[in-house]
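User: For my dataset I need records formatted as: sequence, then structure tokens, nothing else. Please produce one.
Assistant:
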Amino acid sequence: MAFDSLSAFLDMGGYAKYVWPAWGLTLCALIGFAVWARMERRQLIRQLERRRRREARSA
């Protein structure tokens, strides 16, 4: 095993102040992209529904 204990793992050989923020930023970015994609999808569905209703009225 690479680390002898949980505290050694969390310390990351002295590089914890660089490693854990990098993990945190990555996680935030992934969550942000997922939220953004979901919002874009909802907006697209609404636009398509409005277009469908508009075209149904004019036909």
